[in-house]
Specification:
binds flavin mononucleotide, 418 residues, Rossmann fold, 13 helices, nine-stranded mixed β-sheet, single chain, six-stranded parallel β-sheet, 25 strands, alpha/beta
Length: 418
Amino acid sequence: MCYTELNFARKSAVRGGVFKTMLNGKTVLLGVSGGIAAYKSASLASLLVKAGAVVDVVMTKAAQQFIGPATFEALTHRRAWDDVFDRADPSRVHHIDLAQNASLLVIAPATADVIAKIACGIADDMLTSTVLACTCPRIIVPAMNTHMYENDATQANLRTLRERGWFVMEPAAGRLACGDVGRGKMPEPDDIFEVIEHFACDTHDMEGERVIVTAGPTREALDPVRFLTNHSSGRMGYAIARAAADRGAQVTLVSGPVSLKRPRFVETVDITSAADMFEAVTSRFEQSTIVVKAAAVADYRPATVADNKIKKKDGDLSLPLERTQDILKTLGERRTNQFICGFSMETENMLENSRAKLVKKNVQMIAANNLKVAGAGFGVDTNVLTLITPDSCLELPLMSKEEAAHRLLDEIMKRKKA
Ligand SMILES: Cc1cc2nc3c(=O)[nH]c(=O)nc-3n(C[C@H](O)[C@H](O)[C@H](O)COP(=O)(O)O)c2cc1C
C-alpha cells in the first residue's frame, strides 16, 4: 500500500501557481555597486523574490548613478539601504542587523573599487560596512572594463577574497558597454541565480558521495539524416544532478541531446546514443557511490545504419530494430556498494510494472512516474513521483522537479545510512 505524504517538511509549496524553491524564506543580501551592469541587478532581485527569498538591497552612492533605490524597493517590497548613518529608526544599527539576518550575501555588480575596499577591510559606506559584518556565505560578481579586471591590483584583490572563502563568479567575455571586447561582463541574472541557489542549500549530507546521473533522451541513427528518439527533455535528471551538487556531492551528469543549460558545479558528459550512454555510465560505475538513471534510453535501435540517406520509394517501409544494451540491468548485476535508483515512465499499471522492474534489475529504488497524470513526466517543470523500494512505496504529491529531486535524494540518503 502506498501512502501519500501530506506532512511535507521542506517548506516548499505551490502558492498561486508559483513553485517555491530552495530559496524560500531565506534572506539574500544583494549588494549593488556603481557599475554599468547595475541595471541587471533589478532582474536578479526579481528572480530572487519570485523564488521566495527575502531580498535586502544595499547600494553604494555610485550605484545610484545607474539605477535608483525605488526600482529595488518596488521589486523587493523592502527598503533599499544606502546610508550607514540613516536615522529613520535609531533602535537598530542597520548595517549590523542586515549582516546578521542574511542567509547569503551576493554583490552584483562588484566594481573594482568595491572589491579593493573589501579586500582591504575598508568600511566607509553602507555596503562595505555591512559586508565586513557578514558571516554568511559570500558571492562576489566582478563586472568592469577588461583592463580594469585584468589589472594586477584587481586580480590580487580577487585572490585575497577567494583565500578568505568568497566565491568569485568569473565574468563573461564579450562586447562591453565601453566598446572593448574581452572579459568583464556581468553574467546574466539567471546564471547568478543558479550560483546563489547552490550556496543557499544548507543540506550538505552528500559530501563524499560520487554520483552519476543520467538525463535526456538518446538518439538512434537510421541513416546520416534521421534518428529514433523520444520526448524526454532532461529536466528531471538535470534537477537531480544540480540538487546532488548543491548538497555537496561530486556529480557526473551523463546527458543525451537536450536544450538545457549545462548545470554549474557538475561535470557533464554529452552522449548521443544508447551505446554511448552504456559506455559512459559503465566506465564510471566502479568509482561511483550512487547512480540515478533518469534518462529515457532507447530500448531498440535500427539493426543497421545506412551509409547514405534512405530514399523514399512507393509503398511502406519496415525497419528491423534490435535491442540496445540494458544499462540498468548491467549495473544491477555489477553493483557492489553502489545505491542504484532507476526511473520508470509508465502509461498503465505503473506500480506493478515498477515493482517488477525493481526486482528484475536488482536495484534498490525505482522512481516511477505516470505519463498520464497531470503535471507528471516529459517536458513539464513538475512531476508526481512514486518512490518504490523492496519494503516501501512513497507517493509524493505534485511538486517542481527541483523539489522532487531533493525528495528523491532524501530517500536515497536515508536508505544509504540505514
Ligand atoms: C559610465 C560609467 C560606467 C562605469 N562602469 C563601471 C563598471 O562597470 N565597473 C567598475 O568597476 N567601475 C565602473 N565605473 C567606475 C565606478 O563607478 C567608480 O569606480 C565608482 O567610484 C565606484 O563606486 P562604488 O564602488 O562605491 O560603487 C563606471 C563609471 C562610469 C562613469
